[in-house]
Amino acid sequence: MKSESQIMSELSHKTHYLRELTTEESKALKSAILDIYKDVAALCNKHGLTYMMSGGTCLGAVRHQGFIPWDDDLDIMMPRKDYDTLIQLLEKGELGPKYEFTYPNSKTDANIVFLKVFRKKSKDVEIHNTNSPFPKGIYLDVFALDATPKSPSMQKLKGFIANVLQYIAMCRLLTQYPSQQVKEFMSMDPELLKRYKRKVMLGHIFSFASHAKWVYWFDKFVACSKEGNPWGIPTGRKYYCGEIFDKDVYVPVTKGTFEGLEVNLPHDTDRYLKNLYRNYMELPPVEKRERHFICEFELPKD
User: What is the pLDDT of residues 252-268, one digit of tens each?
Assistant: First the structure.
């Protein structure tokens, strides 16, 4: 079965509101994201916080020593204790006036279940964020590393509940902030339309609580800053159970190179990447390469 991103790649040229970045735009976007990373990394270093590159960014550092050529986002991950400290620093304004951010909390809504840092006075509007109150600038994603139960059966149980909560939050996003562009796009493919209708139905069923509450409940359920073992990334590309390892796979960090910068990588980078991508040094076929589609794009104005 094709993923939504694969179907999106095939259908994007049929819309008037969705397009792929040009080569020049992609290059400029990468430069702007790298600037965000430098500022966040400097803040983390100043306060002794542990952070490392994750997912496709980690893969890019190992295989390309920088961004994956056809990809243009940047992800880092942090142990929950350091992740929470970073959020506190952001709340105090220590990253400066150029930035805004969202994260799951009890007071405000967040567009997703992890921390996102946005560059003000820029635009990188994706189709799911066209009709929402959330920031729409160029962004950096920050994921929390949480201690998980030791028992595989308890991991599966907690993972099941976590994944259900995350899915409900996604469904509520669609119904609380409905987007005509999303509806039109999903209607272009029978399989996409079927998935969309299912999510909308569930979004209405669980509308007794707001999107903000479902996101917050998910985060409170998975968060664990205890010095436990193993660790996982509940909001990662493989969901709750997909990236659980002994914590020495993640820490202490090792060093790598990314766009000429010395960066932090997971301690056992090989094991981490094999779990995500198997033969990670081999380039994927063109049709399976993730691509970035946007509705609006604008570089930072200052």
Answer: 999 999 999 999 999 99
pLDDT at residue 15 is higher than 80: no
Beta-bridge partners for 142: 76, 115
- Does residue 223 contact residue 26 with C-beta atoms inside 8 Å? no
Considering the chain, what is the average pLDDT of its residues?
Answer: 92
Q: Is the pTM of the predicted complex or chain greater than 0.85?
A: yes
Sort strands 231-232 and 139-147 into parallel, antiparallel or unpaired: antiparallel
Please tell me the predicted confidence (pLDDT) of residue 36: 98
Task: Specify whether the backbone of 55 is left (phi greater than 0), alpha (psi in -120 to 50) or beta.
Answer: left
Domain limits, the chain: 4-298
State how far the Cα of 238 lies from the Cα of 276, in Å rounded to an integer: 8
Band of residue 2 on the pLDDT scale cut at 50, 70, 90: low
What pLDDT is stored for residue 301 in this prediction?
82
Res 16 pLDDT > 90: no
Q: Is 211 exposed, middle or buried (0-12, 13-18, 19+ CB in 10 A)?
A: buried
